Amino acid sequence: MSVVLKLRLLLDRFTLTLVAVVVAASLLPAHGAGAVFFKWLTTAAIALLFFMHGAKLSRDAIIAGATHWRLHITVFVWTFVIFPLLGWSLRPVLLPLLGEPLYIGVLYLCTLPGTVQSAIAFTAIARGNVPAAVCAASASSIVGIVITPLLLRILLGTDTSALGAGSLLQSIGHISVEILLPFIAGHLSRPLVGRWMDRHRKLVTNVDQSSILLVVYTAFSESVVAGLWQKVDPVSLVWLGVVCCALLALVLVLNTWSTRRLGFGRADEITIVFCGSKKSLASGVPMASVLFSSAVIGPVLLPLMLFHQIQLMVCAALAQNYRRQWETLAQPGHTPA
Q: Which CATH architecture group holds 2-321?
């Protein structure tokens, strides 16, 4: 219980800081020479962020979890097939409800890879298959570098005006340089820096979150200068919250039901639910800065930021519930139903 509460408090502080950064970018956006400076600083922050992600990834955990191919295929299908199809199929409802910029943000959210740290943390709290979660979450993050831009262009069809200049291959190339190469470099350097990072987890977490905040400030500054708050009204934001809650609830219910129908055990079910239903803010914000034009990047990020906090609160409660179920099953004399 104390682990869950501590995690919740940390996430609450980060969320409040995230909101404060959006307010700061709205009132004091970077422009001119300041915008150029923050752009370069953001590029360095993204590289550092994914260098640390790679350095934290244990090769032993990859080997231990990689053999569970049925689980990994199920997580992949939920992350990159069912989730995007849900976003695309709901277009007739969401487009008039939210407007085009926010709908594109919801569609982008649906194509993103899953989270890494929080998916593994919640799996551990719920007593799921942690080695498989490490492998599934990390693979999702890496594969998403190529699949997310591809899915987005397919689902948008001919309406690609929101995307930045450049071809699909150029977008993937830019993302690979900013994200994949630092990730690989970090993982290869794990023998040198891994123990230090394990001893300084709090510092690593602070640097990790600070990098995300810097990217959010830079992205929102560009959008505010381009007229973000003239395009997004308060009513649309309220509806966006409802849509994010409904989307997460739908995915969690269908994910849990299908996992049980496929015959997975409880530990694997927990892993699939947490790895297949969450979307990554850490990957989504940097990729958005490459994929989208400055005019729309703010509205595109709003669904992701809102969904991120909702999924953390819901999954914290869900992990706690799974843990209580394990404790009940472990009681002497208990007979499973």
A: Up-down Bundle (1.20)
Q: What is the pLDDT of residues 216-274, one digit of tens each?
A: 788 778 777 767 777 778 888 899 999 999 999 999 999 999 999 999 999 999 999 99
pTM above 0.70, yes or no: yes
Tell which residue, 202, 160, 182, 220, has the closest CA to residue 38: 220
Short-list 135, 7, 25, 159, CA closest to 76: 135
282-335: per-residue pLDDT in tens? 788 888 878 887 777 888 888 998 898 888 888 888 988 888 887 776 666 555
Strand-pair partners of 292: 163
288-316 burial string, b = 16+ CB within 10 Å, else e? bbbbbebbbbbbbbbbbbbbbbbbbebbb
Phi/psi zone of residue 28: left (φ > 0), alpha (ψ -120 to 50 degrees), beta? beta
